[in-house]
Write a structure and sequence with these properties.
The chain is of the alpha/beta class. It has helices at residues 12-27, 48-55, 72-85, 113-118, 126-141, 145-159, 173-178, 236-248, 267-274, 281-286, 298-301, 308-320; strands at 36-41, 63-67, 91-99, 181-183, 186-187, 196-204, 211-219, 257-259, 324-331, 334-341. The strands form three sheets. Strands 2-1-3-6 form a four-stranded mixed sheet, sandwiched between helices. A four-stranded mixed sheet has the order 7-10-9-8, sandwiched between helices. The chain has a two-stranded antiparallel ribbon with strand order 4-5.
Length: 343
């Protein structure tokens, strides 16, 4: 990863090249050994062919710029694994680079055709949309702002020892309540960081390291289609969790590192329940039994590289003392999940 900042003063190309070179060094290989290059973006990054040229990769095999945001954070690992499995590549680099604070900001209101219909109701961007879903979720579950505070406060505590994290200070209850609302019930602290930076991973069929075990992608009705959804608070995890356990042959108790896409605080308890990682969310959150989730601080505290920094953290933990890591990718009702295993 590059340093995570709020004003990089650099181009997305510079950030991407730095991250890719660092990933190659970490893997003990030269950029010239990369034979496939993948990235995902929302018209806010740099194309893979430009990165390949800047790296001096003269003969590039399979390459793809995948349209999309958080949904791709886990499933792009599946794209890479399939390329290796079918013999199309040996060493693949995945990267995500963006100036998400000083450049194009994802949390500002957009003006696409969908927003033409929804902005009159105050839903002209992702935060109002998912705040409405959060309101319904809290109502249905009986969770309150105390539980949201518990999520964010634990995220800050987890990030305290992470030098990469943008937010490392404790967040008391009074501090949390003093934060302004962006869109009720979400305060500024309940929303992920807006970050400049880049992250890159090497996925190889010939090197040793943590393994990609299972990847799934899917979705259904829910908060991405509120006009026709039976449950506007339903997110991707309710759809992909059964797919993940069925495809992997694993069970929730096998997971000892959870890297959950925490773009908003309420997504953490929702995913914990959907993936079967926690019961009795009331006590689980207030007693901070979720401290094992996003040990680096996640997107709420470390920074926001569209979820790929969570995957990098999964690799770090699997290199140390964890055996199975779950990483997720959120995009409303649609998303992805992957199980990674220790070498």
């Amino acid at each position: 990863m590059t340093a995570l900042t709020r004003a990089s003063g650099r181009s997305e190309l510079d950030l991407a090249v730095e991250a890719v070179r660092a990933a190659c060094r970490d893997a003990g290989m030269e950029p010239a050994e990369v034979d496939a290059l993948l990235s995902y973006h929302m018209n806010d990054s740099v194309p893979v062919v430009q990165v390949a040229r800047a790296l001096g990769i003269e003969r590039l095999g399979w390459h793809n710029d995948i349209a999309g945001g958080g949904t791709q954070a886990a499933s792009i690992l599946g794209d890479a694994a399939m390329l290796i499995h079918c013999g199309m590549a040996r060493n693949i680099v995945i990267y995500r680079a963006l100036n998400g604070r000083s450049g194009k900001r994802l949390n500002v209101a957009s003006t696409g055709p969908q927003e033409e219909l929804t902005r009159r109701y105050g839903m002209a961007g992702p935060i109002p949309l998912f705040a409405l879903a959060a309101t319904r979720y809290l109502h249905d579950t009986g969770l309150t702002e105390e539980h949201l505070h518990a999520v964010v406060a634990q995220s800050r505590d987890n990030a305290a020892g992470n030098p990469r994290a943008l937010r490392r200070e404790p967040l008391t209850w009074d501090d949390y309540q003093a934060k302004p609302y962006v869109c009720t019930p979400l305060r500024t602290a309940d929303c992920c960081q807006e970050t400049d930076g880049a992250c890159a991973l090497v996925v190889s069929g010939v090197l040793t390291g943590p393994r990609i075990h299972t990847v799934v992608r899917g979705g259904g009705p829910g908060c991405s289609a509120m006009d026709s959804a039976p449950d506007v608070s339903a997110i991707f995890s309710g759809h992909v969790a059964p797919m993940l356990w069925r495809a992997s042959g694993m069970k929730p108790a096998d997971v000892d590192a959870a890297l959950l896409y925490d773009a908003y605080s309420w997504l953490v308890p929702r995913q914990l329940a959907d993936f079967g990682l926690a019961e009795d969310l009331d006590g689980y959150l207030l007693e901070r039994r979720h401290a094992w989730v996003n040990r680096h601080g996640g997107l709420l505290s470390e920074g926001y590289v569209h979820g790929l920094n969570n995957v990098a953290q999964a690799v770090r933990e699997l290199r140390e003392d964890r055996e199975v890591a779950l990483v997720t990718g959120f995009g409303g009702s649609y998303g992805s999940a992957a199980l990674l295993t220790a070498p």
